[in-house]
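Private note to self, pasted from the team thread so I don't lose it. Backbone tokens:
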């Protein structure tokens, strides 16, 4: 999975991939193959206009804020196409107006063979001609507004990268997570988790988890997962 994040603030997002699972995914390369996860950071400012590398301007028709100009974005995408030597691009633009991101889309991203480019908007948004002149997929991470598209891009890449075979140390853990594809089909959350100590400030780990009875544990987990969903998100059960 190869991603390029196009942003005004590369330093804001690059450090996220220097830790934990995603760092290992960038370093882990099966024999004769590229790393499991490739991430590059492209500064939109490098393609800004004039001596000041301008990337935004006031909106036509008036109104508050600034809008990202089309010229730097088109120039950046053309440079990326040249860099990728003809490899097809899949261009994603985080937007509250887009298709809502979910686990199925994360799985789709994880299997993508094209280079995925995430265009991170800022301020009041991106000149609409970017969407008109380029094949762009608008994707939303929820019904709220953020200051930029960087966080949604990180969320999508994170969700997808951990589904790439070999990224997680224990692949089976994917099957039991909330919103795993298996759980998504059933519409249920994950069951509660506990670890040592067995008792903490008067709160005890359920006895069944200490019993060693795997059949009873599996039954308890299934029941708790259902109750957890029923209490928190009953809409999923419908």
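Design output:
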């Amino acid at each position: 999975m190869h991603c390029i994040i196009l942003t005004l603030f590369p330093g804001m997002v690059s450090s996220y991939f220097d830790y934990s699972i995603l760092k290992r995914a960038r370093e882990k390369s099966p024999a004769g193959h590229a790393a499991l996860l490739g991430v590059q950071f492209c500064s939109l400012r490098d393609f800004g206009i004039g001596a000041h590398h301008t990337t935004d301007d006031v909106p036509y028709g008036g109104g508050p804020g600034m809008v990202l100009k089309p010229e730097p974005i088109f120039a950046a995408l053309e440079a990326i196409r040249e860099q990728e030597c003809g490899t097809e691009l899949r261009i994603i633009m985080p937007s509250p107006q887009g298709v809502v991101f979910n686990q199925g889309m994360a799985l789709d991203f994880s299997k993508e063979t094209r280079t995925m480019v995430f265009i991170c908007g800022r301020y009041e948004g991106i000149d609409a001609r970017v969407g008109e002149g380029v094949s762009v997929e608008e994707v939303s991470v929820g019904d709220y507004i953020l200051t930029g598209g960087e966080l949604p891009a990180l969320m999508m890449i994170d969700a997808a990268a951990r589904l790439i075979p070999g990224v997680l140390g224990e692949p089976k853990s994917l099957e039991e997570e909330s919103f795993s594809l298996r759980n998504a089909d059933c519409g249920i959350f994950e069951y509660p988790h506990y670890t040592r100590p067995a008792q903490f400030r008067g709160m005890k780990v359920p006895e069944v988890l200490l019993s060693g009875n795997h059949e009873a544990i599996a039954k308890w987990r299934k029941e708790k997962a259902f109750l957890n969903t029923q209490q928190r998100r009953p809409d999923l059960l419908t």
